Amino acid sequence: MSSFKDRLPPISQMGPFIALAIACAVFGMTTDNFFTGANFALILQQVMVVGVIAIGQTLVILTAGIDLSCGMVMALGSIVMTKFAVEMGMPAPLAILCGIGVTAGFGLINGLLVTRIKLPSFIVTLGTMNIAFAITQLYSEAQTVSNLPPFMTALGGTFDIAGTPISYGTILMILLYLGAWFWLRETASGRHVYAVGNSPEATRLVGIPTDRVLLGVYVLAGVFYGIASLLLVARTEVGDPNAGQTENLDAITAVVLGGTSLFGGRGMILGSLIGAIVVGVLRNGLTLMGVSSVYQVLITGILVIIAVTVDQLSRKGAR
Amino acid sequence: MSSFKDRLPPISQMGPFIALAIACAVFGMTTDNFFTGANFALILQQVMVVGVIAIGQTLVILTAGIDLSCGMVMALGSIVMTKFAVEMGMPAPLAILCGIGVTAGFGLINGLLVTRIKLPSFIVTLGTMNIAFAITQLYSEAQTVSNLPPFMTALGGTFDIAGTPISYGTILMILLYLGAWFWLRETASGRHVYAVGNSPEATRLVGIPTDRVLLGVYVLAGVFYGIASLLLVARTEVGDPNAGQTENLDAITAVVLGGTSLFGGRGMILGSLIGAIVVGVLRNGLTLMGVSSVYQVLITGILVIIAVTVDQLSRKGAR
Amino acid sequence: AEPVIGLITKTETNPFFVKMKEGAQAEAKKLGAKLMTAAGKKDGDTAAQITAIENMVTAGAKTILITSSGDAIIPAVKKAQAKGVQVIALDSPFEGADALFATDNYKAGILIGQYAKAALGGKPAKIAMLDLFPGHPVGAQRHNGFMTGFGLKANDAKSNELSSTPETVCAADTDGNQAKGQTAMENCLQKDPAINVVYTINEPAAAGAYNALKKAGKEKDVIIVSVDGGCAGVADVGKGVIAATSQQYPLKMAAMGVAAGVEYAKGGKKATGYVDTGVTLIAAKAVPGVESKDVKVGTELCWGDKK
Amino acid sequence: MSTSHKLVMQAKGLVKRYGQVTALDGADFELRAGEILAVIGDNGAGKSSLIKALSGATIPDEGEIFLDGQKIHFNTPIDARRAGIECCYQDLAVAPAMTITENLFLGREMRREGFLGNTLRMLDKKKMLEIAVQRMADLKVGIRSMTQAVETLSGGQRQCVAVARAAAFAQHVVILDEPTAALGVKEGNMVLELIRRVRDKGLPVILISHNMPHVFEIADRIHIARLGKRACVVNPKTISMSDTVAVMTGARDPATLPAECLA
Amino acid sequence: MSTSHKLVMQAKGLVKRYGQVTALDGADFELRAGEILAVIGDNGAGKSSLIKALSGATIPDEGEIFLDGQKIHFNTPIDARRAGIECCYQDLAVAPAMTITENLFLGREMRREGFLGNTLRMLDKKKMLEIAVQRMADLKVGIRSMTQAVETLSGGQRQCVAVARAAAFAQHVVILDEPTAALGVKEGNMVLELIRRVRDKGLPVILISHNMPHVFEIADRIHIARLGKRACVVNPKTISMSDTVAVMTGARDPATLPAECLA
Ligand SMILES: Nc1ncnc2c1ncn2[C@@H]1O[C@H](COP(=O)(O)OP(=O)(O)OP(=O)(O)O)[C@@H](O)[C@H]1O
Ligand SMILES: Nc1ncnc2c1ncn2[C@@H]1O[C@H](COP(=O)(O)OP(=O)(O)OP(=O)(O)O)[C@@H](O)[C@H]1O
Ligand SMILES: [Mg+2]
Ligand SMILES: [Mg+2]
User: Fold this and answer.
1) With D54 labelled, which of B177, C1, D128, D204 sits at a CA distance of 20 to 30 A?
2) Nearest-CA distance from C272 to chain B in Å?
3) How far apart are CA D234 and CA A143, in angstroms?
4) At B160, is the secondary structure helix, strand, or coil?
5) Cα of C30 to nearest chain A Cα, Å
């Protein structure tokens, strides 16, 4: 009943992996430095912020919503935690919790507007995106916050495995993915996230408190954005009021590349990790190839389409 | 059977108007110059580009898609038409047609990828957005194109009605909206757009060529982006390679504010016009109030949420 | 092997950075170096710049030239430097760069402020400020510099906040974009039709502002000043669209940076210190008490094409 | 017949309006302990609207509902579920992309024992699968794999999933809205069998059906809905099928029925 | 009985697999001119899969289909529609947010006369509304407003919309997949009436139904589907209902039926 083959994800969910494999093969052949452990470790480091945001974004998208505020909320979180620690002299762990508290608070606001007033998530998060951006600018006075306590940047540190420096943040990201994967797959509340996205009315009628599920998802997403704030701070060693401008599109791209449907209820969280890595690999590989940046944009556009096309055709083949 | 009351849109579709009325009332009370004919004429001029893009975007969203490429494709169109006219010396009408041809071509590519390979529109248009951007930059060498033939900027001209200067572009925009409205409401092919968005499977099963409907919608959207290119050129009197960066979010916002569902099949085109005007009114009114720019962002965020909340609550009241 | 030099600009959509890239490419070709380029998606996209730094280090760049989008790149720069990479700031200063080849944006603002004040000739000022977008240091420096030059009370060069006084009757963001500049100016004219001075963040915004004024029939009565001195901008000065602009020299910055990179690769030492690549006020009509160059000079110098 | 029966559910004067359409127009309702109550009526008579009001799926505009004599107010289906009422809706209320097992246990998932279940709250997928196989086998519906998504099932198979769910978890009342509409002869009989088993456990069942032979075979009383109201309640043992249909379609005034036909 | 009948549709050895599930396993099919052919079978027997293959909704993996003796290959429902085949699917295939009238005329809209219609291609909404009112009145289903969205209809009313559409536009063959499943006694009879009218116009009808009395009342021949194949075709005038059910459920081997029962 549960042979090994049954446990493998169906071929329809392998698309993102195929896209990743193809991208890697191309870069491996055209550049010298691509296929090194150090380079892969670097790519993982580069994608960890978007990767963790993408966890929250995946949850929201699984419920058939979308969160445009994720990048700006993350930026606000990083400003709050760094300013609290540096300027108010708060102990770093507490400051971090405050930052995560703020991002979770934004999640709560998003969730309340979506569940209580039944507003479309697109508009709600467009509004809170602007609000978070403005608060970030006002509160930081558009100044970068530096001289952070070491505790706050500890996750940016690395340890060596076979001479390859792996950052703690990367490990944290992978653990968060595994946790989210376990939750979505193995627990009732995780399955309810899928159910709400798949058929909100049916889920309501069987007596699941759909509003509570949704609210929980938005708050949880906020917590993930808070953790992403911390990773960003650890990676850049500053609190940057300019952060978060491109992360929201990057995160949504990662989720969609990873095979999650924007209509909700279908998808898998590990795909988002692969999607984030695909985005990072493209950026890294093209720079290593010495492609100039306008051409990078062009090629990224083309490769993104090719990646999903390959994915789609491989599914057709499997049918 | 068709009394006047029957012909009024149901209250559930009046939300955007209410939001607009509220925004106008607030600005009317807090500033001196808001409630003047000239100011309204100005706002209409300012929204005409986003307004026309929003027509194309509405069509795509009605089919349960989304078009992220709209702004960049429009920018490419304006560069093509201006460069063809100025540098290749092509007659202006022909150059304009070439520009529109390019935008329609992008629509065709989007449409083919969506219908033939069944890719999600989000990813397809994300890819073509990057491609259009890169081509724009490469082809224009990031240089503004000026000294345009007068024919190309004629739509930017104005005529007076009761002392208020009305631009031809505004009139064109309104005519396009009326045309799109007529098409969507009164013709079979227009109704099929709704049907495809509402239930693609049912539409396919009753024997409507859904792929052809979708392809048509994407190409038509491309044509609207091309007309928007012309309006942009007419308004600014240059071909600007930096255009189009914020128009896609603005246009989607206008559509969603206008009450069209991102899940497809429900909405009305005139709502998008109102949505675009709401966006323009906010920007205009806040500048008139002398609100500084960070606070403008903050207040825009809050007002967008209030607008849809009012909308939503007014619908509940109507039930 | 030929030395590898990286150039990271804020974006690739601004002609200023495009010119900078061209200058770097030309110089690299001349000196036999390999140039890699990268840019953010938009101004302020520090994340992309950090990623680009890391990728260029991996790709073996020994010198990285960067127009910083924000101080968030500093730690990444330090990490690169720790690996022996020379990092040179172009155009936008940041702490810890080995060297800075740049224009002083605050000074650029002061020059056009002084010019506008003199050109207005004692009439009461009603100024429209067409800014970049919130929170951008260059935007703040030019804005506050302009006000200082105009004799208004304003923040100093280090502040990222935009000052305002009763004379600045209107302020709006343009994203440095022509269409948005036009919209902003139109709205400002609604607010106060008597505006007689317009500060603009860059020349596309100035062109947009001029368009709006022309449509309102006011282009003759208003002084538009701007910053950048690109060839198109200087041409606009010649046409009377812009009264005066502060010219900068991106090609020069880039060429100097590439040369420093080649020097370092050849076993030379790292470049150090601040080299002011200079600001020149270009105006069609000189005004008494403010030194300026005419359009002809401006065209010859535009962005340092002909050094 | 005797009025001494304990009333499990009761509703008085329920009204539900949708815009100009009045779906319920002062409907009354009574469900006795341990009985199978059939609800019949023309299309659009308000049967589904009635049971949606009873199960908390919609909130009636007017009227009162009593459960075991207590006045209650269900705001959501959650409240009804807490009170032990399970409902199989006409449009099935299944999550199409999820598997049969998941749909069967949606909202009633079983957790593993011990640490994995209590602390990690891990689902016991194996046990749920076993039970699901068992339940579907009871209905004799030939489904090949329980890990198939419900959207890949045939119409009748899908209906079996929804019926099995309602029957499995009810503690107090089972409501079935046209549970046999899409079922074949054999499967339909299995569902009738299942309904009897539920009743024999002591739970009352509300059965909406258009299948008169089924209704007359199984119902203890028949509630006839007409134009948003209850026309009357009849006794299938004493009334003929044709009289029942006549009342249902409005061809006969219920007041003209002999007293012994009423229940 | 006589084999001289003209075959309108014919299929040989249709196979349709979904992953491990084989929905059709070499099914044959024959529809004669002017007849009402009932298709019956257990849930999951492959009835819907069969008619989906006949109407172009799915493409069979193997097998051949003939229309009027010509081998055809429907790639999409559009091809079938062009050939004059109309189908009412089990899951109804309606656009929920659109009105009843719009759904009835979806893909078959009527245009105004003259300039408005020919050049502006304007719809004749008034005429379509009138016809829609007429069609729904034929089915005696009490729908109050034709401009109601289909999603606000009761289950049976929705089914009437889908049935009326298929019957209205067919030129060649009408296929109805469980058209009376959600219908009340009166409405169900109206649909049977409608089917007879269609047949009397000379169009053959394929009727899938689980309602044996209906099937025996109206069918000229009965195709029994079993496990993805055609078990046999029987004659309702000579076979008993219980024998039919026995074959359908597999309790009786069709080979043991007396020859006069087969058709
Ligand atoms: N959400 C809604 N909006 C508008 N009208 C509705 C809605 N739900 C039901 N109605 C209307 O209320 C009436 C009663 O519907 P209901 O579903 O209760 O009928 P029913 O007796 O269950 O019929 P059926 O046997 O066809 O299932 C119908 O006329 C229907 O059109
Ligand atoms: N898209 C699909 N994917 C996987 N399996 C499918 C799919 N469609 C149908 N099946 C399977 O094929 C078999 C036949 O289904 P079909 O719908 O033809 O049955 P049916 O005879 O119409 O049954 P019913 O009387 O319940 O409507 C079923 O076991 C079903 O699970
Ligand atoms: Mg019903
Ligand atoms: Mg079926």
Assistant:
1) D128
2) 32
3) 80
4) strand
5) 18
Interchain CB distance below 8 Å, E141 and D210: no
What does the pLDDT average to over D216-231? 94
Chains that touch D (3 or more CB pairs under 8 A): A, E
C165-C167-C173 Cα angle (round to 5): 75
Q: Residue C53's closest chain A neighbor by CA?
A: A287
E97 touches B at CB < 8 Å = yes
Cα–Cα distance list, E99 to A180, A265, B205, C43, E128 (Å): 42, 28, 17, 49, 12
Q: How far is A152 from chain D (nearest CA, A)?
A: 29
Residue E23, ligand 2, Cβ within 6 A: yes
Does the pLDDT of residue A313 top 80, yes or no? no
Per-residue pLDDT of C257-307, as tens digits, reads 999 999 998 887 888 888 888 899 999 999 888 888 888 888 888 765 544
Is the minimum CB–CB distance between E149 and chain B shorter than 8 Å? Answer: no
Token pair of E35, please?
């007849």
- Exposed, middle or buried by CB within 10 Å (0-12, 13-18, 19+), for A185? middle
Express each pLDDT in A10-23 by its tens digit.
Answer: 444 566 777 788 88
User: pLDDT band at B13, cuts 50/70/90?
Assistant: low
Residue whose tokens read 């007033």: A117
Say which ligand is closest to the CA of D49: 1
Over pLDDT 70: what percentage of chain A?
93
* Cα–Cα distance, C39 to A253 (Å, whole number): 20
E strand or H helix that includes residue E221: strand E221-226
Helices (H), ranges, chain D: 47-54, 77-82, 100-104, 114-118, 125-138, 155-169, 185-200, 212-218, 241-249
Mapped onto helix, strand or coil, the DSSP state of residue E144 is coil
Contacts of C188 (CB under 8 A, 6+ apart): B287, C128, C130, C169, C170, C172, C195
D155 CB near ligand 2 (under 6 Å): yes
Query: Which tokens sit at A74?
Result: 């993350």
A133/A130 Cα distance (integer angstroms) = 5
B9 DSSP 8-state letter: P
Chosen for mutation from C17, C71, C81 (greatest number of chain A CBs closer than 10 Å) is C71
CB atoms within 10 A of CB C263: 17
Judged by a CB distance cut-off of 8 A, whether residue A39 touches chain C is yes
Whole-Å CA distances, D242 to A163, D38, D239, D245, D252? 88, 16, 8, 5, 10
| CA distances from residue E86 to A258, B205, D161, E52, E167 in whole angstroms, order as listed | 40, 10, 30, 11, 7
DSSP string covering E195-211: HHHHHHTT--EEEE-S-
Which residue among E81, E89, E121 places its CB closest to the CB of B187? E121
For A56, half-sphere exposure in the C-beta direction (CA atoms, 13 angstrom radius) is 36
CA distances from E48 to A93, B180, B200, E40 (A): 62, 39, 19, 10
Cα separations (Å) of E7 from B212, D139, E4, E53, E262?
34, 38, 9, 17, 17
For residue C55, the Cα-to-chain-centroid distance in whole angstroms is 26
What pLDDT does residue C306 have? 44
- Smallest Cβ distance to B312: which of A66, A117, A309? A117
Q: What share of chain A has pLDDT > 90, as a percent?
A: 55
**Is the confidence at residue B14, as pLDDT, over 50?**
yes
Give tens-digit pLDDT for A117-134: 888 898 899 999 999 999
- Would you give the end-to-end CA distance of chain C in angstroms? 29
What is the model's pTM? Answer: 0.89
| Best residue for ligand 2 mutational test, from D153, D158, D159, D161 (most atoms within 8 Å of Cβ) | D153
Please give all residues whose beta carbon lies within 6 A of any atom in ligand 1, as ranges. Answer: D 18, 21, 23, 41, 43-49, 90; E 152-157, 182, 184
Among candidates A39, A133, A287 on the partner chain, residue whose Cβ is nearest the Cβ of C38: A287
Decide if A57 contacts A252 (C-beta within 8 A).
Answer: yes
